[in-house]
Protein backbone atom coordinates (compact mmCIF):
# COMPACT_ATOMS: atom_id res chain seq x y z
CA UNK A 1 0.00 0.00 0.00
CA UNK A 2 2.91 2.36 0.59
CA UNK A 3 4.18 2.21 -2.99
CA UNK A 4 0.99 3.57 -4.65
CA UNK A 5 0.85 6.40 -2.13
CA UNK A 6 4.47 7.34 -2.88
CA UNK A 7 3.77 7.22 -6.61
CA UNK A 8 0.73 9.45 -6.22
CA UNK A 9 2.69 11.91 -4.13
CA UNK A 10 5.23 12.07 -6.95
CA UNK A 11 2.38 12.75 -9.38
CA UNK A 12 1.04 15.53 -7.17
CA UNK A 13 4.52 17.05 -6.94
CA UNK A 14 4.77 17.01 -10.72
CA UNK A 15 1.54 18.96 -10.92
CA UNK A 16 2.77 21.48 -8.36
CA UNK A 17 6.14 21.97 -10.03
CA UNK A 18 4.51 22.32 -13.45
CA UNK A 19 1.83 24.71 -12.19
CA UNK A 20 3.50 27.97 -13.06
CA UNK A 21 0.36 29.40 -14.68
CA UNK A 22 1.74 29.96 -18.18
CA UNK A 23 2.42 28.00 -21.31
CA UNK A 24 5.01 28.81 -23.94
CA UNK A 25 6.59 26.72 -26.66
CA UNK A 26 9.41 25.22 -24.60
CA UNK A 27 7.90 25.35 -21.11
CA UNK A 28 4.58 24.09 -22.47
CA UNK A 29 6.22 20.96 -23.81
CA UNK A 30 7.85 20.29 -20.43
CA UNK A 31 4.61 20.94 -18.56
CA UNK A 32 2.66 18.71 -20.94
CA UNK A 33 5.21 15.94 -20.48
CA UNK A 34 4.91 16.23 -16.69
CA UNK A 35 1.12 16.06 -16.83
CA UNK A 36 1.23 13.12 -19.24
CA UNK A 37 3.66 11.21 -17.00
CA UNK A 38 1.53 11.87 -13.93
CA UNK A 39 -1.69 10.82 -15.66
CA UNK A 40 -0.11 7.63 -17.02
CA UNK A 41 1.19 6.84 -13.55
CA UNK A 42 -2.25 7.40 -12.01
CA UNK A 43 -3.85 5.21 -14.68
CA UNK A 44 -1.35 2.43 -14.00
CA UNK A 45 -1.68 2.75 -10.24
CA UNK A 46 -5.46 3.07 -9.95
CA UNK A 47 -6.79 1.52 -13.15
CA UNK A 48 -10.52 2.06 -13.55
CA UNK A 49 -10.66 4.07 -10.31
CA UNK A 50 -8.93 6.85 -12.27
CA UNK A 51 -11.58 7.07 -14.97
CA UNK A 52 -10.55 10.55 -16.18
CA UNK A 53 -7.20 9.33 -17.52
CA UNK A 54 -8.09 8.60 -21.14
CA UNK A 55 -10.06 11.83 -21.47
CA UNK A 56 -7.27 13.90 -19.96
CA UNK A 57 -4.72 12.37 -22.32
CA UNK A 58 -6.97 13.01 -25.33
CA UNK A 59 -7.49 16.64 -24.28
CA UNK A 60 -3.76 17.03 -23.68
CA UNK A 61 -2.94 15.85 -27.21
CA UNK A 62 -5.53 18.26 -28.60
CA UNK A 63 -4.16 21.23 -26.64
CA UNK A 64 -0.58 20.36 -27.62
CA UNK A 65 -1.60 20.33 -31.29
CA UNK A 66 -3.25 23.71 -30.94
CA UNK A 67 -0.14 25.04 -29.15
CA UNK A 68 2.04 23.98 -32.07
CA UNK A 69 -0.39 25.40 -34.62
CA UNK A 70 -0.76 28.70 -32.73
CA UNK A 71 2.89 29.59 -33.22
CA UNK A 72 2.94 31.93 -30.24
CA UNK A 73 -0.55 33.35 -30.72
CA UNK A 74 -3.36 32.89 -28.20
CA UNK A 75 -0.98 31.71 -25.48
CA UNK A 76 -3.14 33.15 -22.67
CA UNK A 77 -6.17 31.21 -23.90
CA UNK A 78 -4.21 28.00 -24.32
CA UNK A 79 -2.57 28.49 -20.92
CA UNK A 80 -6.00 28.77 -19.30
CA UNK A 81 -7.18 25.59 -21.02
CA UNK A 82 -4.01 23.77 -20.03
CA UNK A 83 -4.31 24.89 -16.41
CA UNK A 84 -7.94 23.74 -16.30
CA UNK A 85 -6.94 20.36 -17.73
CA UNK A 86 -4.12 19.99 -15.21
CA UNK A 87 -6.53 20.78 -12.36
CA UNK A 88 -9.12 18.34 -13.72
CA UNK A 89 -6.48 15.59 -13.83
CA UNK A 90 -5.35 16.33 -10.28
CA UNK A 91 -8.82 16.49 -8.77
CA UNK A 92 -9.70 13.17 -10.44
CA UNK A 93 -6.88 11.48 -8.51
CA UNK A 94 -8.64 8.88 -6.31
CA UNK A 95 -6.52 9.94 -3.31
CA UNK A 96 -7.80 13.50 -3.73
CA UNK A 97 -11.41 12.89 -4.76
CA UNK A 98 -12.00 9.85 -2.59
SSE topology:
Blueprint: H1 2-18, H2 25-46, H3 53-70, H4 75-91, H5 94-97
Helix pairs in contact: 1-2, 2-3, 3-4
What is the number of helical segments per DSSP (H or I, 4+ residues)?
Answer: 5
Mean pLDDT across residues: 77
Written as H for each helix and E for each strand, in order along the chain, the element string is: HHHHH
Strand-residue fraction?
under 5%
Taking all Cα atoms into account, the compactness measure Rg is: 13 Å
Brief characterization of the structure:
With 98 residues, the chain is an all-alpha fold. It is built from five helices and no strands.
Task: Describe the model.
80% of the residues lie in helices and 0% in strands. It contains 5 helices and no strands. The protein has helices at 2-18, 25-46, 53-70, 75-91, 94-97. α2 (25-46) packs antiparallel against α3 (53-70). The model is unreliable at 8-25 (pLDDT under 50).
Name the features.
98 residues, mainly alpha, single chain
Amino acid sequence: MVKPVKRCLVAVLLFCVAGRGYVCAEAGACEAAAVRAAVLDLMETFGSAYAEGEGVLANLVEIEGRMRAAGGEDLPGLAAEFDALRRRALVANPLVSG
